[in-house]
From TrEMBL:
UniProt xrefs under PANTHER family: ALPHA-TOCOPHEROL TRANSFER PROTEIN-LIKE, ALPHA-TOCOPHEROL TRANSFER PROTEIN-RELATED
Gene Ontology molecular function terms on file: phosphatidylinositol bisphosphate binding
UniProt gene name: Ttpal_6
Pfam families: CRAL_TRIO
Organism: Araneus ventricosus
Listed name of the protein: Alpha-tocopherol transfer protein-like
UniProt lineage: Eukaryota, Metazoa, Ecdysozoa, Arthropoda, Chelicerata
Length: 294
C-alpha cells in the first residue's frame, strides 16, 4: 500500500504551480485573464485603501485569492475581504488562538486533513471525521476552529483557489454524546465563516455514514446554508455511492479506497510550518473594532 500511486490524472494536493489544464479552468469558469490581473489588483487595492478603519493585507497573492473566489468582480471581492476581516470581530472566541500550533491536540487526533491527491477536476479533498471526535478530549469550538484553519491554509494554494474544495464528512459513530456538546452559536459561526467569509469555491460536500442522530444536527444547520451550498450536498448510504463522485484511487481504505488509512502528515507539516502567517493575520483587519469585541 505504501508504494501505491494513483494515475497521473489525479494531481497531488501539494501541486502549487498552475498547469495548462488548470489555467483553462481559470479562464472558462473564473473569467481570469492573465493580462488583466494587474489592473484588477490595482482596482481592488484602491478600494481597500479607502475603506475606513480597515488595515488590510495588500499583497498580490492575498488579493488574488478573493478575486478568483468572486470571478474577478472587484466589488464582490472587496465585499468578501470586508467579511473576512469582520469574522474575528463578529466571532472573537472562534478566532482566539487561531494558529496551528495552538491546535496540536486536534492535529494529534487526526480528525481533519486534506487527502494527498486531488479529484479528477483538480479539487482539493478535505476529509473530516466528525464521528471520531472525543468530546471528553476536545471541545466543539476547538474542532470547528481547526476545520476553518485547514480550509484557510488550503486556499493559499493557487490550484485550490481555481478548482475549489470538496469536503467529505464521515459521520461514522456520531452519537448523542457528540450532539449534546454542540452549541448552535458555534455552528452558526462555523457555517457563516466558511460560507460567507473565506475565499473558497465549495464544489461539493459528501456526507457518509450518517445516522438519524446526524439528521437532528443537519436540521439545525440547513437553515444557515445558502441554496447554492444546499444543492451541492450529497448524502451517501454506502461507499459505492461516494465512488461515483470520487475515485477509489484517491480515497483511504476506510472509505473503500486504495490509499493507506492514515492522515496526510505532509499537510499537517505544511500547516505547522505556516504558523507565523496565522500569527501575522492578527496585524490586519478592523483592529479598533476587534478590541471593542474582546
Amino acid at each position: 500500500m505504501e508504494d501505491y500511486r494513483p494515475r497521473e490524472i489525479f494531481k497531488p494536493f501539494s501541486l502549487d504551480t498552475i498547469p495548462e489544464d488548470i489555467q483553462r479552468i481559470a479562464e472558462l469558469e473564473l473569467h481570469e485573464r492573465v493580462e488583466e490581473i494587474p489592473k484588477c489588483l490595482d482596482v481592488l487595492r484602491g478600494m481597500l485603501e479607502r475603506e475606513e478603519d480597515l488595515t488590510p493585507c495588500l499583497d498580490d497573492s492575498f488579493l488574488l485569492m478573493f478575486l478568483r473566489a468572486r470571478k474577478f468582480d472587484c466589488q464582490a471581492a472587496f465585499n468578501l475581504i470586508k467579511s473576512y476581516y469582520m469574522a474575528p470581530v463578529t466571532y472573537p472566541s472562534m478566532f482566539k488562538n487561531f494558529t496551528p500550533r495552538s491546535c496540536m491536540n486536534v492535529i494529534n487526533a487526526s480528525l481533519h486533513y486534506f487527502l494527498p491527491y486531488r479529484n479528477v477536476d483538480g479539487c482539493a479533498i478535505l476529509l473530516s471525521r466528525f464521528g471520531q471526535w472525543d468530546p471528553r478530549a476536545l471541545t466543539c469550538d476547538e474542532l470547528l476552529r481547526f476545520n476553518i484553519m485547514c480550509n484557510e491554509m488550503a486556499i493559499k494554494n493557487p490550484v485550490t483557489q481555481i478548482c475549489g474544495i470538496t469536503t467529505i464528512a464521515d459521520m461514522k459513530d456520531f452519537s448523542w454524546s457528540h450532539l449534546l456538546q454542540i452549541q448552535i452559536s458555534d455552528v452558526r459561526c462555523f457555517v457563516n465563516t466558511l460560507q460567507d467569509c473565506l475565499p473558497i469555491r465549495h464544489k461539493t460536500i459528501h456526507i457518509i455514514n450518517h445516522s438519524s442522530i446526524f439528521s437532528v444536527l443537519f436540521t439545525l444547520v440547513k437553515p444557515l446554508l445558502t441554496e447554492k451550498v444546499k444543492n451541492r450536498i450529497y448524502f451517501h448510504d454506502d461507499v459505492s455511492s461516494l465512488h461515483k463522485h470520487i475515485s477509489q484511487e484517491i480515497l483511504p481504505e476506510s472509505l473503500g479506497g486504495r490509499l493507506a488509512d492514515a492522515p496526510n502528515q505532509d499537510f499537517y507539516n505544511s500547516l505547522l510550518n505556516n504558523d507565523e502567517s496565522f500569527v501575522a493575520r492578527r496585524n490586519f483587519g478592523y483592529l479598533s473594532r476587534r478590541h471593542l469585541s474582546i
